[in-house]
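Re-running TIGR01777 family oxidoreductase to confirm reproducibility after the cluster update. Everything else is unchanged from the original entry.
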Amino acid sequence: MKGKKVLITGGTGLIGKRLTQLLLAKGYEVAYLSRKKTNIPSVQVYEWDVDKGYIEENALENTDYLIHLAGAGVADERWTEERKKVIITSRTETIGLIQKKLKEKNIRPTAFISASGSSYYGEDTGDVRNTENTPPNNDFLSHVTIVWEKAADDIAALGIRTVKLRTGIVLSNEGGAIPRMAAPAKLGFGAPLGSGKQWVSWIHIDDICQMYIDAMEKESWEGAYNAIASHPVTNEELTKQICIALGKPQWLPNVPAFGLKLAFGEMASVVLGSSYLVNERIAKETDFQYQYDDLGKALREILK
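Result of re-run:
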């Protein structure tokens, strides 16, 4: 491991920051591809400009592992047509540029690990248990994930072992859904969203980061995996467990779906949609060990 180089896109995001800490602790050399040349302790930052087709010289050289986390936040802004375009291109054109440069320079890292989304199966799949063999859907977020994974397959076509981690809701106190849900709960206003019956496929930040490391280090990992904990829960149960972890009561009625749709428009499907993923390949084909496969334990660690 010592001296092996991991090049990360989107390294300053939620997963990237924690993954960097864990990689550095293991003795890896970590580098980022970034739109701005910034100073980050212990990390070599290389500049890239996707619109101009530019990657700084030597960024890809001697790279052992490539991790692709870059992508505009799906729930950051209302989904205008322009925003939808950004959500797609920020994921696909970035991979396209890397693929082009790897081909030109004849560089072949040991593995390419790409983020992907649980929405591959659809924004709302009800009570269906989705395994890696479940076909994709045809709504917007499903389309985003399909083209994202197709771009990753272009890297695989160069003869590079490629892994795609279809990730659900990442539990962390540094960002994502939990701080947003915990804020009203801390004030005693915790309430399920919509019916509360929609399934949430979740994973603790440390477990998803360890999956990236296992996917890098273990040659048996290849293709798409449902990168989530073993037991999805309903939105109602997630809200309840957040309140328990905070030692707060949950007494408010559910936040009505129509209110969320008024506030968020089409993007409301992110919180109202039901997504039950089964981590079939992780469970059957790998020796991955979860640190936080129990929701209560995961939330206690995050909200302590």
